[in-house]
Amino acid sequence: MRVIDLSTPVDAAGFEPNPVLHEILSPAEGARHMSEEMRTHFGLDLDPSVLPDGEFLSLDTLTLTTHTGTHVDAPSHYGSTASYGTPRNIDEMPLDWFIGPGCVLDATGEPVGALDADWVLRELRRIDHHVRPGDIVLLNTGAAALCGRPEYFSKFVGLDASAVHVLLDLGVRVIGTDAFSLDAPFSHIVSGFAETGDRALLWPAHFVGREREYCQLERLGNLDALPAPTGFQICCFPVKISGAGAGWARAVAIVDA
Questions:
Q1: N or C: which end of the chain has fewer CB within 10 A?
Q2: pLDDT mean by block of 10 residues, the chain; 257 residues
Q3: Which domains does the chain show, CATH number per domain?
Q4: Pairing mode, if any, of strands 113-115 and 99-106?
């Protein structure tokens, strides 16, 4: 089999609305840190100079949101209540949701905004794919090419409520995108609401999650490396963070060699 990485990195050097703080202790600094921690917490005394080259282990400390890099949104991210009951957190979601047959829909030529159910159905007909329950459907918008730049957060296409509903009707439980959000960019949403006063335009893809339980897999990458729109498995297990509305994921596609 061949494994294709579909994840984008957590990179403190790239642009993020919520900046990433990445602090690194070198192996030598790690040795001194370890010595101090052992003395403080366990009453043990070890001179770090006795270690090979005076070094122990490096240590990375990161400050970031659970929506940085490739991640899975849990139902609790969409709101505190839902019509189907109490929304589950990321650590409560069944693992079998996050592994299954995948298909990718090509939205790379679409303008900024939101695609509807008719577009989804046309694209499924174009690739001659019949979605089955448990399929993981991915949206390739081309946004991953902008990752790390401010434009990544404003130049992409999302899905509207009808598009999400039609996929859920087909038995999909996880919908992915290479963009910052499964919804249209903030500027598109806010300007549309300002012009019409229609509250249904406010983050419809996310708010469907208050009506029906599903997860979003956001900020994917490398979707162009998939050899075909179908015929691969997706694995995107989220990190088990207690009580969290999202968890980072190392998403991959598995293709038979």
A1: C
A2: 96 96 97 95 94 95 98 98 97 98 97 97 97 98 96 97 98 98 96 95 97 98 97 98 98 94
A3: 2-10+65-255 (3.50.30.50), 21-63 (no CATH)
A4: unpaired
